[in-house]
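Listing S7. Sequence submitted for prediction.
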Amino acid sequence: MTYPKMIIFDYGHTLMCELGFNGVKGTEAVMKYAVYNKNNLTPIQDSEFSANFFSKLRPIARTNALEFHNHKFQRMLYEYLEIDIPLEPDEIEQIFWDNAAPGEKMSDIDKVISYINENKIRSGVISNISFSGDSLAERINKNFPNNKFEFIIASSEYIVRKPDPMIFELAIKKANLKPEEIWFCGDNVYYDIAGANSAGMFPVWYDSNIECYYRDKYTDTIDYNHQHIKNWTEIIDVLEGLK
């Protein structure tokens, strides 16, 4: 383990957590702006159709480590249901996400962001997410106004998703560093830790006690070099020890 020149973070349950997902609540917020609803569908009916549509796409994308873009998803959804929402795609998306799955910062993550800024450690974000890169950046920048993230990579904007090495290699190219000079921090052993390791980055497994509603349990043994932490303050101690 060597002192990093850059630390890249996952978003979900690493920087911020979403304690649940309420598609009906998100749809209700969006439907308030509808000016045409040919079949007089309720938010519950709309949400049920959306969930079924998503369930068809999800296994195809996950099996092949691919991502689809939410703007295309919501366009197909509302045009197919013959509902007119006279808002820009990013506005519809933001209203839905903020109401369906509001986020809050993980405990002590602010201390880590301040520490790496003060110690001139560069930083960035890679997230598996179907919401747009703009929406992701807006949420992150709103909650971390002091961040110095050089890039925020949303898989929706790049087709591939973690653990495909390509998305990690993209970040390496953006950083113009060697893989071993970068640490990657995430909560998901398969997507984040194994993925970062496959690209030559040093993985940091943030194993918090907060349940994640969309994360599969991981039972395989991690047989490669990595750092396992339970609390964000631990990474500060590790970095201090490497100085």
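Caption to Listing S7: primary sequence and predicted structure tokens for the chain studied. The longest strand covers residues 122-127. The mean pLDDT is 95.
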